[in-house]
Each structure stands twice: as C-alpha cells, then as structure tokens.
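Bumping my old thread because nobody answered last time. Still need a sequence for this structure:
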C-alpha cells in the first residue's frame, strides 16, 4: 500500500480533531465528499488545477475505506505523523530502509495486457516489485501510476508498505524527462 494522498483533506476533515473522529463523523464526511466528487479521474485532473482541489469518487472511496478501518487508520495516521503531510519527512521516515527503483524488479502488470492503441490508449502498466523478508515474493509493489501521481505533486519518493506484513520502505525515483 502506498499512501500518497491526504485522506483527511479528501473527506474535508483536515481541521477536525482526529482523536474524536468516530464512525458517524466519517460516514457524514464521506457522504458530503461523495456529493462533491468527480465521477472520473480525467475530468477531475482537468478541472482541479489551482483553485479548489477536486477529488474523484475513487479518491473519496479510498479515503473512507482506509479511515473507517481501525487497523488501516492507525497505519495511515502513523505515516501521516511521520510525514507531517506537507512538511518535512522526519521521525518515522528516518527509521525506514531507503531504496530506489533499481532495487526493484520491473515488469508489466499481468492484469492488463492491452496493446497501445491509436487514440492515446495506454499500454500495459509497468510495475516494480520486490520481495520482502516476510517471504512475500512481491510484497512491495509500485505501479507506474503511483509514480506518476507522486511526480505530479513534485515528489521524488514514495512510501511502500509490504502487502504481507507491516514493513515499510522509502523508494526514491528519478523521473526521466520525456
Ligand atoms: Zn513483508
């Protein structure tokens, strides 16, 4: 799992006290956020530049999914506390192993094997995987989309959590000009 989004902001809860946030608050915020969300990523990314950020329905669902799950929320809060959201990446991050993409095995996402078409259709998604010490062969997984999203925010690093255990690593990447 790679957290690259501010789920509290997506749900409009950024200024609320997180300790007292309960399921009812979350559900209310979820419904409100859904009403204001865009149905698809394309229109959101076209319209959301500069002014008020516009989130997609998927963003909102993802945010609610994480924050309404006690285990995931604790993990996410830990990540956010370490990252300071917009500020430095101190604390928790300092304890993490730092890798870069060359430590991962590049491959194509087996789930999508569509050929590159004529009208700007995307080809197979490139993904990078790495085995974890817990034994999960592809415990760490980064998709091209996640890198592009991070790049879009001017970031040069993503956090990746193992799918099989609670281990996190930091992965730096260089974006090739193209
Ligand atoms: Zn693991």
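Sorry it took so long. Here it is:
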């Amino acid at each position: 799992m790679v957290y690259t989004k501010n789920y509290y902001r997506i749900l409009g809860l950024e200024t609320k006290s997180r300790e007292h946030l309960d399921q009812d608050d979350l559900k209310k915020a979820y419904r409100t956020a859904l009403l204001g969300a865009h149905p698809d990523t394309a229109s959101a990314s076209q319209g959301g530049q500069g002014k008020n950020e516009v989130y997609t329905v998927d963003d909102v669902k993802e945010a609610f999914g994480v924050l309404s799950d006690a285990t995931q929320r604790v993990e996410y809060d830990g990540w956010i506390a370490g990252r300071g959201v917009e500020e430095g990446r101190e604390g928790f991050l300092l304890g993490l192993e730092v890798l870069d993409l060359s430590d991962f095995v590049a491959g194509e996402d087996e789930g999508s094997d569509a050929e590159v078409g004529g009208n700007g259709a995307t080809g197979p998604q490139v993904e990078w995987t790495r085995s974890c010490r817990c034994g999960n062969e592809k415990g760490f997984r980064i998709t091209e989309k996640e890198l592009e999203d991070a790049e879009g925010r001017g970031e040069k690093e993503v956090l990746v959590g193992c799918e099989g255990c609670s281990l996190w690593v930091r992965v730096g990447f260089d974006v090739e000009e193209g």
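The longest helix spans residues 23-36. Let me know if any region looks off to you.
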